[in-house]
Amino acid sequence: MDVLVAEDDALVSLEEALAFIDGYDINEQSLTETLVHCSPVDLFSQITPSELPPPKTPVTTRKHAKPQRKLSESSSSQEDNPNKRRRARSAASSSTRLQQKKRAEIQALREEAQELETQVELLKKNKFLPGDMVLELDDSVFEVSQEKQPSNWHEMAIAQYRERLVSEKTNRRLKSILANQEKVNSALSGLLQKRSVLSGMDYVFTAQSGVDSALLTGEDSSNAQPSEVNKKVMTELEQAVQRMYKEAKTHSKHNKPVSAITCDMRIKHDARRGKVIEFVTTTPMSCSLESATEIVWKEISTYLEYPDKVYNCIRGEKPNTQEKTFVMSLKSPSGMLELNGVQYMEKFEELDQTIFTAAESMVLPAKGLQYRNECWMTVTPSASESNVSIVEIFFQLYMERDDGLIASTEDLAYAQNIVMGSLSNTLRKFFQTQQNALMEKAGRIIVAPIASTKAIL
């Protein structure tokens, strides 16, 4: 009995609630917001009694709520009337409304997802574009992402991204400017190092007749005029050059140079001069005798700046002669050494060979030590190969001694071991560099005619 009454009460309450929902007219937007933010219990609690529809009178009459009826009788009556149906909800009930709301929410989510996908594709596209193209893009590209009001982090990200693109573009421009400056610097350096740019320097220095520099000697030369000191030294060097020319001519008659690259250093001891350092080099040049002579003369007579040797004056008063004054810096175990020197050089041209002779006098002012080096060079055609010339160099370095002065053992050891050892290392590097330069310039003479012949063919 009690179970049947409870079931009927629940059925009546459900029918009243469905009737209320069908009769209450609300728009989809407000209902969606209400369903999202409120629970069903909160929805019913917000309804006022005036908004509820009046109950139907037939529904209040409880025909089946008789206390005399038993549970067995009600079940038998239901079996006797099988065609009796329960009340069913209509098609336009709450389930249809809920489906419409769900569809509306799904459609809104799809539109929002499509907008987000559009923004993602735009960000991916801008990520792989070059910096110049991104900076030149119009603001219309970002209209899709700006339909809704962007958040603060999105604005900050876009601002930082644009600033980074500007800095990268500026960095690329600065790097290109730096690379261009390096190219210009290397081009100017190569141009200033060429021999053709320095052609005519002999005439310039020859015209400077008033320029003269004195050679610093170990003795007090403050009372002597610079021209007198240089004149005396140059006279001695000229005599040494003439002597070296005779030695070179005698050597070329009895010895034929071999067409092989050699650079030998020898240390000898002489009774009068003491320790003597000799260099003998042989350099084959793949060119004629005339071309080799011209290359060698330009190599030894043109004014060049070396890191350890600075020339102060270059003059040539006689044909095929040249006079130089220089300051030479040496690295030694005891520190940097500075030597002042004078050089005299002369060229002798013959039918079958060319001979260059040179003599130098150097002074170490700090110790009052004097050194002398003598050199001859011969340029002869090769006996075994045609159109090949051989350049042979003989060089001697020794310390000058004054018979009137008696030097101590320590000074002699310093002069012959420390100073001459540093000079020998510097000279060996110089001769090796000179050999490479002579062969390279001789090779350029050979390559030029071959290239022109190919162009004609």
Q: How would you describe this structure to a colleague?
A:
This protein is of the alpha+beta class and 457 residues long. It folds into three domains: 2-76 and 92-127, no CATH class; 131-179; 204-456, Alpha-D-Glucose-1,6-Bisphosphate, Chain A, domain 4. The protein has twelve helices and eight strands. It has helices at residues 2-23, 28-37, 40-45, 57-60, 71-80, 94-127, 131-136, 152-193, 201-207, 226-254, 289-301, 409-456, and strands at residues 262-270, 274-285, 309-315, 321-332, 335-349, 354-364, 369-381, 389-399. The protein has an eight-stranded antiparallel β-sheet, with helices on both faces. A hairpin with a 5-residue loop joins strand 3 (309-315) and strand 4. The protein starts with a helix and ends with a helix.
Number of discrete domains: 3
The major pleated sheet works out as: 8 strands, antiparallel
Alpha carbon gyration radius: 55 Å
Morphology call? elongated
Named CATH architecture of the largest domain = 2-Layer Sandwich
User: Helix coverage percent of residues?
Assistant: 40-55%
Number of strands: 8
* Category by helix and strand content: alpha+beta
Strand percentage, roughly?
Answer: 15-25%
Summed over residues and divided by their number, the pLDDT gives a mean of 72
What's the CATH H-level superfamily name of the largest domain?
START domain
- Sheet with most strands: strand arrangement: 1-2-8-7-6-5-4-3
CATH topology of the largest domain: Alpha-D-Glucose-1,6-Bisphosphate, Chain A, domain 4
Distance between the termini: 126 Å
What are the segments in which pLDDT stays under 50 over at least 5 consecutive residues? 1-7, 26-36, 56-77, 130-135, 202-226, 447-457
- Order of H and E elements: HHHHHHHHHHEEHEEEEEEH
CATH class of the largest domain: Alpha Beta
How many helices?
12
